[in-house]
Amino acid sequence: MVCRPRVLALGWLAAAGWAGAFPLLSDLPNQAAWGRFAAPGYLLAAALCAALPGRTGPRAAGAAAALGAVLLPLAAFTLTGRHQSEVTVVERSARLLLHTGSPYLPDPVHVVDYNPYLPVMAVFGLPRALLGDAGPAARLLGDCRLWFAAAFLACLLTGWQLLRRRPGRGAVLPLTVLTVSPLIALTLVVGGVDLPLIGVCCLAMALADRGHPVRTGLVLALACTLKWTAWPALPVAVLLLHQRRGPLPALRAGLLAVTAGGAALAPFLLGHAREMYQQVVRFPLGLTAVRTPAGSPLPGRVLAGLGPLGHTLSLTLLCAGGLAVALWLLAHPPTGAVAGCDLLAAGLTVAFALAPAGRFGYLALPAVLVIWPRLATASGRPVPARRRQPTHRQPEAVPMVSGNTARTRE
Known about the structure:
The chain is mainly alpha-helical. The protein has a domain at about 1-80 and about 170-190. Helix content is about 65%, strand content about 0%. It is built from 18 helices and two strands.
């Protein structure tokens, strides 16, 4: 289990209070609607966890929370067309990719016309582009939030299998609790665009920890072609692999990540460089005429709101913070998945806090990076990924007999 039933019950009560506050305090209709679904589910989860004996309570509580915080609101939102703007952006980018060869509008006018994601993110919008939205089944199966969640769960489950320290310890309950917690459930239901990024970053660290250079490089390439905020994962994973397997596997993983990622981005950089620069770089940094809707009052956003001088100061602090984390990474390279995820989480937290625009929801990525590897490695000690050493045949003992006395020598 994740923790003791009483502690878990208190956690579900806290989640119910958090979800119940949204209808009362939030002026965002989607978040308020999610809270009305989720709060009763969390309350039921707390009651079941406290009342039912043994492992039955936490399992029943996880099912109740999943129903109230994820399954019911996601189905309702999907069938009624409720979502945040990133869902529209991703699904439109897939249609544009199929029809024009580029996921970017050439001359964006309104905020929803901007696509701040790298081209591979459009893959998650392909089900909608192919299935349309005629009928409940097509609306459900075509919604990109479903595929965001599927990628997230698949990556975390695979990472668990790589990092777990005791073969008999299952991932279902910990993964359920994490996914249906407010940290992930709200993001999953209303938008979910950051979920695949969270999943692939966790998986890349797990693969690097276990010493798989080719798979690490491919997963890093995928991460770095979804969203540029995943780019810090590349040096962290490569240094982790260097510590675990040595310089050659680390170099192989890094070159593969850069080569595969560059090959995926090259057609768009060559044919649509202006659109990518405006929408992927300038728009998230608040440098375009249309301002990004990511306006949570994080320190960088507050500074940027003070005017041009504040915006420049925010960017300066962002660069200084990134440099400080990079120097720390070089001085203290990670030696395991937990340390690697912690370093990546620290760097991303600094970036999200000091960027001129951001959302509190972005902090789910560093939070999961801190939590998930610790859950997967919660008991025992993993077998380290050792460098390959040449094997030497041990000399056999040869019996020697002298008179009535038998002795051995090597």
